[in-house]
Amino acid sequence: MGRPVRATRPPYKYVANSRLMTLGGATTDWSVGDVVYGRPSLARDGSYAQYLAVDAGEIAAAPRTLSLESAAAVPLVTLTAWKALFDLGELGPAGTVLIHAGAGGAGTMAIQLARRRGAKVVATASGDGIALARSLGADEVIDHRTDDLAARGRFADVVLDTVGNETLERSYASVVPGGILVTIAGAPDDAKAAELGITAHTFVLDSNGPRLAEIAGLIDDGDLRPVVTRVLELDEVARAHRLIDSGRTRGKLVLRVP
Questions:
Q1: Which of 122, 152, 226, 227 is most exposed, with minimal Cβ within 10 Å?
Q2: Residue 2 pLDDT more than 60?
Q3: Is the pTM of this model over 0.85?
Q4: What radius of gyration do the chain's Cα atoms show?
């Protein structure tokens, strides 16, 4: 779930609705009123606050071509997909990647990033998520309800698991020897990975303003687009969490903070 944020700059900024409200005392390139976006550190509270203090390195200028609501949907899932695919997965243009839940928040951005890198993209989805994954650039979409993934054997250089549990357990058998499994939905079994001759990772996402600046450029150039399913008001936060817990949402939900 994302939210529009308005922010400030070093050493900390006070943010609400994605526009810089107050600047810290240090010299800065930011100005009050700048429209920014970011994934603030988990070390501080304030996810549903109207104003939030953030460090300079956690934000970047928001994509010019997006609304505040759409921009709010970008940082968490795109930074997650980037780190999983490229920093940890080492996905290259000659590689094949399997992305689980390709119609989900991280999955929708992972498909686009992997496609842009030149990799072959295989995604899992169901229902109308199949068409969505294809529209984002997946070369092949597997219906996880009816297709037998195990029958395909070991075909993916990189597997990105965003689901966990049984999906994670089945993912090991899809990775080629020497390949990499990255999960954001559980703890990998290192012994099982070693037995299969693969590497398995999980991670806690760090904030990364410079990378968000690069992502904003890709969005403004038309190379990436966020998928926003619904924008809800702040007092609908409980409903938003229920929708997420249903496991049937496409792309991202966004909370509008007054």
A1: 152
A2: no
A3: yes
A4: 19
Would you say 201 and 182 are in contact if contact means Cβ atoms under 8 Å apart? yes
Provide the Cα torsion 200, 205, 211, 213; round to 10°: 150
> In degrees, to the nearest 5, what angle opens at C-alpha 234 toward C-alphas 232 and 239?
60
Question: Looking at residue 35, what DSSP letter applies?
Answer: B
- Rounded CA-CA distance 31/60 in Å is 12
Cα 255 from Cα 253, distance rounded (Å) = 7
Plot region of 46 (φ>0 → left; ψ -120 to 50 → alpha; else → beta): left
Whole-number Å distance between alpha carbons of 181 and 98 = 9
CA dist., res. 162 & res. 140, Å (int): 18
- Closest-CA residue to 157 (of 138, 136, 137, 174): 174
State how far the Cα of 219 lies from the Cα of 258, in Å rounded to an integer.
Answer: 26
The strand order across the sheet containing 19-22 reads 19-22, 12-16, 52-55
Question: CA–CA distance from 70 to each of 4, 177, 219, 256 (Å)?
Answer: 8, 39, 11, 11
